Amino acid sequence: MKLYNFFRSSTSHRLRIALNLKGITYEYVLVDLRTDQHHGSDYKELNPQGLVPALVSGNDVLTQSPAIIEWLEERYPTPALLPSDPEERARVRALAAIIGCDVHPINNRRILDALRHDFAADEAAVNRWCATWISAGFDAFEELLARDPQHGEFCFGHTPTLADVYLAPQIESARRFKVDLARWPRLQKIDEACGRLEAFQKAAPSVQPDAG
Ligand SMILES: N[C@@H](CCC(=O)N[C@@H](CS)C(=O)NCC(=O)O)C(=O)O
Fold it and tell me: Among 10, 31, 108, which is best to mutate for testing ligand 1, by the most ligand atoms less than 8 A from CB?
């Protein structure tokens, strides 16, 4: 498999974690967002949306990290990243969706570029924008964990699930935007637990070949 990705992209980071948790080896193919390689025709041939990541498996080109992660779960069911009970699966997916649908998309680079260029936002305003939406998502995430008796060392129970796969990269990104994490003690503990696992350590942006 080939993973077209970028070290600092949190959707790429999600995929690296999921692949590592499933024990799948992959070739790291850099799509450098610093040089706008994702806007080039070569990459758009692969993914017309011009966003990372994309995963190539045999003749299949898979795009959109939620779809790719669900595909991985179906193709490589062990270890499972979703609980077996449908209601529990829905709870785990809801946590993941807070990040995947409601936080990440509005803090993505192209949105921040639009704020800078079309709405004259300076860096302080951009950081405030990011902090606002990250905080709103993390407040809800923290409260849902507080209410869930099955919240354990990880978001759900004592092994990582889809919720952790989405949460850890978003916490990394929150740090980059200098969001103070002290307000979310449960999230911090889960992040520490994730950080103890090799699958998460090997997926970290700082250890990727293009990190810089
Ligand atoms: N919903 C997509 C979003 C992908 C996405 O937004 N990727 C970002 C990096 S995290 C990107 O390629 N950004 C480039 C840009 O905004 O110009 C997914 O989950 O795969």
Answer: 108
**DSSP three-state, residue 3:** strand
Token pair 């800078």 is found at: 116
Q: Phi, psi at residue 63, to the nearest 5°?
A: -130, 170
How is 35-70 classified by DSSP, letter by letter? GTGGGSHHHHHH-TT--S-EEEETTEEEESHHHHHH
DSSP-derived 3-state class of residue 2 = strand
Q: How confident is the model at residue 5 (pLDDT cuts 50, 70, 90)?
A: very high
Residue 6 CA to ligand 1 centre (angstroms): 10
151-173 pLDDT, tens digit each? 999 999 999 999 999 999 999 99
- For a mutational test of ligand 1's pocket, the pick from 9, 46, 47, 51, i.e. the residue with the most ligand atoms closer than 8 A to its C-beta, is 51
